UniProtKB/TrEMBL annotation:
Cofactor dependence: Mn(2+); Mg(2+)
Catalytic reaction annotation: (R)-malate + NAD(+) = pyruvate + CO2 + NADH
Protein's UniProt keywords contain RNA-binding: no
Keywords recorded for this protein, A-Z: Manganese, Metal-binding, NAD, Oxidoreductase
Pfam family of the protein (one): Iso_dh
Enzyme class: oxidoreductase
EC code(s) of this entry: 1.1.1.83
GO molecular function: D-malate dehydrogenase (decarboxylating) (NAD+) activity; magnesium ion binding; NAD binding
Family: Belongs to the isocitrate and isopropylmalate dehydrogenases family.
Protein name, per record: D-malate dehydrogenase (decarboxylating)
Start and end residues of each Isopropylmalate dehydrogenase-like domain: 5-348
Keyword Metal-binding found: yes
Length: 360
């Protein structure tokens, strides 16, 4: 039997509510598959922890997380705690220190009724954004000079190392080759004359090793337009930290909203644990009301199972989400239903069991 050790960081707002439903799915899989078991350890870190202790996580938090196979995160952010603290001192800290340099954001339309784009179908919107996740515009490099004076100057420096740029681009080429899909690079070389020109050059250099992969290159403003007008152009997209962050929210908008947006923060070498999370945020305005949509958190479990090389379960979860979306009555209010968060989780587990009956 394979036992996977999972660190739970439910976090803030609706985070604990949706993480509970993801754990429910894992426990159901454990009950159906005798070859897999899961062990969970919960960490109370987040904004409430910050308000009590003055820090987002324990001083030795990374050492505590290091032995785990994966981290399952709910959400981070709450009124009263500045966003740059809540983000940088927990989420980005884990991403950087655990070298989770690959961010995987699927932009996949699971039901045609969910997109605001007229005449677009599931066939038209089905691609993967691979975002550089460890440096770039979010490196945190810069300075704040002459603060409070008329001469005040703020410097925010993007960091694009050859190692960091080449490895994310190579990862994307490998994914495109393995899945027989096209690869599109998104940059802004016409305006960012150092970082993005370098990015474009590395994309071309690495591409010489992959003559079988068909490639495209777009400026980020053009790519933003095409995400909305011609999403069928894209199959695999690779881009920088900031551009990937923005573009994938456009991706969420065209596939049903943030309640269906998921992301994986991956250390491909598995030297450190990878982290899986819904990316809808903490939504403090609806926290505790039992109406948060757990499907993004459950989709994160699909990504988790793929990472554990249990692809049959990853596919089964995604298929079950698609089936769930066929009946609005059993969905949360954001998708037009009347079900509660826990009811959606319960119904999901029952449907998953029915769809996998007879599986060996």
């Amino acid at each position: 039997m394979k036992n996977f050790q999972i660190a739970l960081i439910p976090g803030d707002g609706i985070g604990p509510e949706v993480v509970a439903e993801g754990v429910k799915v894992l426990q159901a899989i454990e009950g159906m598959d005798a070859s897999i078991s899961f062990s969970f350890t919960t960490f109370p870190w987040g904004c409430e922890y910050y308000l009590q202790h003055g820090k987002m996580m324990d001083d030795d938090g990374l050492e505590q997380l290091k032995p785990f196979d994966a981290i399952y995160l709910g959400a981070v952010g709450y009124p009263g705690v500045p966003d740059h603290i809540s983000l940088r001192d927990l989420l980005i800290k884990i991403r950087k220190q655990f070298d989770q340099y690959v961010n995987l954001r699927p932009v996949t339309l699971l039901h045609s009724s969910l997109t605001p784009l007229k005449a677009k179908t599931e066939k038209d919107i089905d691609f993967l954004v691979i975002r550089e996740n460890s440096e770039g515009e979010y490196a945190g490099a810069g300075d704040w000079l002459y603060k409070g004076m008329p001469e005040e100057v703020v410097l925010q420096t993007g960091v694009f190392s050859r190692k960091g740029t080449e490895r994310i681009i190579r990862y994307a080429y490998e994914e495109a080759r393995e899945s027989n899909r096209t690869l599109t690079s998104v940059s802004k070389g016409n305006a960012l004359n150092y970082s993005m020109v370098f990015w474009d050059e590395v994309f071309a250099e690495v591409g010489k090793e992959y003559p079988d992969v068909k490639t495209y290159s777009y400026l980020v403003d053009a790519a933003s337009l095409y995400f909305v007008t011609n999403p069928e152009r894209f199959e695999i997209v690779v881009t920088s930290n900031l551009f990937g962050d923005i573009l994938t929210d456009i991706g969420a908008a065209i596939t049903g909203g943030m309640g269906l947006a998921t992301g994986a923060n991956v250390n491909p070498e598995k030297t450190f644990p990878s982290m899986f999370e819904p990316v809808h945020g903490s939504a403090p305005d609806i926290a505790g009301k039992g109406i948060a949509n757990p499907l993004a958190a459950i989709w994160s479990i699909s990504q988790l199972m793929d990472f554990f090389e249990e692809g049959q379960w990853g596919r089964a979860i995604l298929h079950t989400i698609k089936r769930m979306l066929e009946d609005k009555e059993q969905l949360t209010p954001d998708l037009g239903g009347k079900a509660s968060t826990s009811e959606v989780g319960d119904q999901f587990v029952e449907l998953l069991k029915r769809l996998t009956v007879g599986r060996e």
